[in-house]
Description:
Elements: H1 6-21, H2 26-37, H3 39-44, H4 53-72, H5 74-90, H6 96-126, H7 129-148, H8 152-166, H9 170-178, H10 180-185, H11 197-201, H12 209-222, H13 226-234, H14 246-256, H15 261-288, H16 296-320, H17 327-347
Amino acid sequence: MIHLTFLEAGVVGLVQGISEMFPVSSLGHNVLIPAIVGGSWARDLSVATPESPYLAFIVGLHVATAAALLIYFWRDWLRIIGGFFSSVRDRRVVTADQRLAWMIILATIPVGIVGLGFEHAFRVIFAKPIYAAVFLTLNGFILIAGERYRTRASLAADRAIAAAATAAPSAQGELVAAGSSAAASYPRGNHQAGRTAADVAAGNLPRTADQAAAVQADMSLAGMGMTPAVIIGSAQVLALLAGISRDGVTMVTGMWRGLSREDAARFAFLLATPVILAAGALKVPDLLGPLGNGIRGQIIFGSVLSGVGAYLAVRFLLRYLRTRTLTPFGIYCVVAGLACLAYLGLVK
């Protein structure tokens, strides 16, 4: 008989949703929490167990997490998906939305190949509490180093965004009033080359300052180019190690490639959406089969909390990163990882 209580499902779901967005590794937390709590939690919630319903459950929660991202970025995804289909129809990649669509596709390929081929090996070898604690500590150092050794281009991109924000509300008002034409000329970041007359002709007409900023951010990202996008997307492979954050390593790599902190976070969330949606969708059939017998109510409960937690987390984080750094998350990961290592070493 499969055991998964509503309390376990609720805690795991909420932790999954929040920690998937925060750069602190959702898988690492979902491996460590049962080990720290012990008792029935350690028995019921084991990722490394063969044909584990817990693994199917936490990966299945990714569908709710991806749904939250799709809801938050729905206008952006409509533009990006429209850009993909228009590029296929016209057989060319010209506008920012078309470029961004293909950047996301190409950047997703490396983690997709590695995930399909080696996910089981990664889980069996590394998804154990002691390894998760080590990798969580390493994740903290990656975040701290990413902030400490940011490139001049990334820092300059931050200053450009701050200067643009200082010009508000008048400049933002112009953006909203003039639509994509103003958005195309509004200074943001260091990737100005991606803006062309085709972007203006695409008909993006933001109605609010936030929507205008989103259009402008995507134009800035599209100017980055395909190769940097693939490099940033490839960093997601490290997240197959429990304790390494997908969004964390992607943000750090994005800043290393010259993105502002805010744009690096935005690109990380856009890249994560198809990956975590695909991972979750692959596990949904398992949850509908024998592995899900007796726990489908808990699955729904955990999924709702995961989706709500993810939506609130991404909304908070994008605003937080406008003026603050990843360092507090890095310090948390180092402290939590070392504390878990010490505890696990004592109880064994």
